[in-house]
Amino acid sequence: MSEGIGARVTRKEDKRFITGHGRYTDDIVEQNQTYAAFVRSPHAHAEILSIDRDAAKAMPGVIDVLDGKQLTGDGIGNIICGWTVNSKDGTPMAMGAWSALATQYVRYVGDAVVIVVAETQDQAREAAEAVVIDYKELPAVVSAVEALQDGAPQLHPEAPNNQIFDWEIGDEAPTDEAIAGAAHVVEMDFTNNRLSPNPMEPRSAIATYNAIEEHYTLYTTSQNPHVARLILSAFYQVAPEHKLRVIAPDVGGGFGSKIYVYPEEIACLWASMKTNGSVKWTSDRTEAFLTDAHGRDHVSTAKIGFDKDYKIVGLKVDTIANLGAYMSLFSSATPTYLYATLLSGQYNIANIHANVCTVYTNTVPVDAYRGAGRPEASFLIERLIETSARQLGISPVELRRKNFVTEFPHQTPVIMAYDTGDFEAHLSDAMKAADWDGIAARKAEAESRGKLRGIGMSCYIEACGIAPSAAVGSLGAGVGLWESAEVRVNPVGTIEILTGSHSHGQGHETTFAQLVCDRFGLPIDNVQVIHGDTDKVQFGMGTYGSRSGAVGMSAIAKALDKVEAKAKKIAAHLMEADEGDIVIENGEVKVAGTDKVLGWHEVCLAAYMAHNLPEGMEPGLKEGAFYDPANFTFPSGTYICEVEVDPETGTTDIVQFTAVDDFGVIINPMIVEGQVHGGLAQGIGQAMLEHAIYDDNGQLLTASYMDYCMPRADNLPSFTIGHTTTACPSNPLGIKGCGEAGAIGSPPAIINAITDAIGNNNLSMPATPQKVWAAYNAASTKQAAE
Amino acid sequence: MTTINMTVNGKAVSGEVEDRTLLVEFIREGLRLTGTHVGCDTSQCGACVVHVDGKAIKSCTMLAVQADGTNVVTIEGLANGADLHPVQAAFKENHGLQCGFCTPGMIMSAADMIERYDGKLDEATIRAELEGNICRCTGYHNIVKSIQAAADEMSKSA
After folding, report:
1. Which tens digits make up the pLDDT trace of A597-647?
2. Is the separation of the CB atoms in A293 and A367 below 8 Å?
3. ipTM topping 0.90
4. Is residue B158 very low, low, confident or very high in pLDDT (cuts 50, 70, 90)?
5. What is the pTM assigned to this prediction?
6. Chain B closest-CA separation from residue A204 CA (Å)
7. Taking CB atoms and an 8 Å cutoff, what residues of chain A touch B101?
8. Does domain B2-77 sit in CATH 3.10.20.30?
């Protein structure tokens, strides 16, 4: 069986995980390991009047108790946002100071104030309880809308009215004009509920200082260890880059939340130097809810105009985005360039204007979570289209079809240039798979059992394969978003791939090896994929934004090109043939049209023996490449959800969920389907179950799995998955990316389905049984009154 | 401190533990068997499931001293030497794992579930039985498939 591109091969990495031999950060114990516990603010907003560390220092096993004044006194820099987004009037974004340990003010419940280092975990936690901090409580605000109002509590002196920036995209005047002249106008309000990412492995860090070498090693739960090292060195001045090794070993899921460098890693590194040892910290689940960056939390209004033929003439959107108490690493980009640039959806819309105002509140920072901005955009446009169809009394399918982009490339008015796609293809495939046309009979059958059936769709598009460096640079990114790879061929012909794309569930150790198999016909067992260690891999931008295939694998493909070219030169020389006649397949290097052949290993050995190489050629067979994408990639798809609601209780069952996606070329369908399943579960979680809720005092009410409703097996159906394919023209492999689609496309399909079932379009996420019951009853009461 | 003795993965072990030490802490830190994970602190996620005297239990919710004298099997002890347990093999074959963090608990729960139902499982039962195991990566689709496949395989060979 082929193990190349398109083959459904099982994963190389599975064995260690199914036998309990995965190696996650918390599994590691360094020599003379000490443990850290953090003293965190119990208040959402307060001034620190005093910190008394004496009692804690005297506790058994305590090595040191350190605070923010010591940290800043040692020159450790503030945590920064790495993407500059300015207001429309040119005012720079208002970045409030964020020290890894708070010095004067705390701004959310969970804000770290003191780090305690002790010989055991229990001793550290007990000593943390003994630290006495005197706070002067200040009024708090948790809603972004309220934070903008006059008289709201103020978080940062740098940000009057708590506004970080007031940004716009698209042309306002023509959009207003188009909507004013429209035959039909539909308006709608949206809330995109706040979520907690919840990878199952809580964050963890082990920082070890070697005083003799003045060298640090950090094991950490990171999606991008090189980016972490760069930031820790260049901005936080924890250690110079060449004196800091960052290792992200097996990482138990990320979903965006492990992109960022958090206060704990900084404090552990610094504490390891202060205590001249190794400091380990592992988050518990409540700490994770309190301190991992949250996602979403938008409030929007939108207005869409149609001409008499139901063609969209304009779309106007106004969004307020809650960024929490401090600006996290990519927090500025998520509700702007990853959100508003996708508001055109799959539709040809000549005029779009979006205004996004970002706001500080006394909540944990908000940043990219699976989909990052694109789920918010997709929810808005797909709920708006569905609602428009209902209000205008035309089929939601026809309304979509009338407005689909059908010619590519297509330049939207909000930066993105869609390169390719076939929206009708996945629409019709999904409708067929879901038996869209048979819904009336199923509704009638359900009604006979006293149940309400509903069906809804969403046609999503997203931009991923993040991202062309110059393009994002011009938009304010503080980094380039290329990827690097190195292909090391050993003298015996086995291959090591070193990649900057970290794998934390995505199966890179298998799919990346499949590329080599495809190229040289070697078994994937002859390939080892190495990632996650700054001492081994030269550099890498990491894994997020569905970029590992389109960007990470393209870098590997480029390096393979160079290896292939050199191997062919050597083979041509050895077999006295023309380089252009050399073919590599099935692990053999042949001269086309002859019976001359060498084993792949013979060519590799020759490269290292260097007894007989072409004149002037360097020995060895090892090549590196950097790949900078030419464009974003644009996965798209049609999702159809069918639900059955119990009108007595509001309980909603998803009876069928159909997802048909166009991800371009697929390397391993098994792994791609798994990515879709997981994304769908997170999208269903957002639509029906999950909500991170702060009370008015800024206490997080949903800080455990007893309170935050994670999707469980019995909340979900098995999924129906399909694919259509238009190859991505901008990268060598034709890959678009699949990591986030499920979470992006599913919430609007679900809410469209439930609202169809209950006959009330007014339903917010998460659509809990209580909300569904109330909405259904409001609709039937209204109907009865009419 | 109390001295405890138990059999873990077929080997007699003993240790000194505090009264408050959880079984999962004894397994991970005392015995350095790190395949058993801690994913929450409220007995919800099931990443810490092990078998104690043949029953699946959440080792974050049992004191180490309570396990004194018991026979414990962790994920490291489930396979028969180099031969994977059918549930482990089914998880690999059906892509029932992604990041792998919940996987040991899922597999231990699944093995127990198949045993209790004598291999006679359908999708609804598997999903209901998995209520105490949370996965964030797979959407459960392939976990359910893996358990069904293992159950079918095990009842065939039984």
Report:
1. 999 999 999 999 999 999 999 999 999 999 999 999 999 999 999 999 999
2. yes
3. yes
4. low
5. 0.97
6. 12
7. 22, 24, 199-201, 252-253
8. yes
Q: Tell me the percentage of chain A whose pLDDT exceeds 70.
A: 100
Q: How is residue A215 written in tokens?
A: 């060298």
Q: Which residues of A touch B81 (CB under 8 A)?
A: none
Chosen for mutation from B18, B49, B95 (greatest number of chain A CBs closer than 10 Å) is B95
For B134, the closest of A200, A286, A680 (CB atoms) is A200
B39 vs A: CB within 8 A:
yes
Measured between alpha carbons, how far is A256 from A356 in angstroms, rounded to an integer? 21
Give me the mean pLDDT over the A167-174 stretch.
98
Provide the CATH number for the domain formed by A33-138+201-252+258-291 in this structure: 3.90.1170.50
Q: Say if CB B41 and CB A286 are below 8 A apart.
A: yes
CA distance A21 to chain B (A): 6
pLDDT of residue A266: 98
Closest residue on chain A to B74 (Cα): A20
Q: Where are the beta strands (DSSP E) in A468-556?
A: 483-489, 495-499, 527-530
Nearest neighbour of B134 by CB, restricted to A670, A705, A742? A705
In percent, the amount of chain A with pLDDT more than 90 equals 98
The answer to whether A360 touches A162, Cβ cutoff 8 Å, is yes
Whether domain A482-627 has CATH 3.30.465.10: the reply is no
Out of A252, A680, A719, name the one closest to residue B100 (CB): A252
User: Rounded to a whole number, what is the distance in Å from the CA of A472 to chain B's nearest CA?
Assistant: 29
8 Å CB contact of B40 and A718: no
Match 């809603």 to its residue by tokens: A143
Contact A716 B39 (CB under 8 A): no
What pLDDT, on the 0 to 100 scale, is given for residue A277?
Answer: 98
| Pairwise CB contact (< 8 Å): A18 & B135 | no
Return the domain boundaries, chain A.
33-138+201-252+258-291, 298-465+634-785, 482-627
Residues of A in contact with B144 (CB under 8 A): 713, 718
Phi, psi of A98 (to 5 degrees): -135, 105
Q: Please give the structure tokens belonging to residue B65.
A: 């001293």
Per-residue pLDDT tens digits for A50-65: 999 999 999 999 999 9
Q: For position A782, what pLDDT does the model report?
A: 78
Rounded CA gap, A568 and A584, in Å? 8
Helices and strands, counts by H and E, chain A: 20, 28
Kindly report the nearest CA distance between residue B102 and chain A, in angstroms.
7
> The CATH number of B86-157 is which of 3.40.50.920, 1.10.150.120, 1.10.150.650, 2.40.50.100?
1.10.150.120
- Give the pairing type, strands A719-723 and B11-17: unpaired
Residue in A210, A251, A245 with CA at minimum distance from that of residue A229: A245
**Residue of A10, A14, A506 to mutate, testing the B interface (most B Cβ within 10 Å of its Cβ):** A14
**Residues of chain B numbered 47-86 and touching chain A (CB < 8 Å):** 47, 74-76, 78-79, 84
Question: How close A612 comes to chain B (CA, Å)?
Answer: 44
Rounded Cα distance between B65 and B43, Å, is 18
Q: Indicate whether A1 pLDDT > 70.
A: no
Contacts of A678 in chain B (CB under 8 A): 98, 136-139
Please state, in angstroms and rounded to a whole number, the distance separating the CA atoms of residues A557 and A410. 28
What pLDDT, in 10s, does the model give residues B32-88? 999 999 999 899 999 999 999 999 999 999 999 999 999 999 999 999 988 999 999
pLDDT band at residue A472, thresholds of 50, 70 and 90?
very high
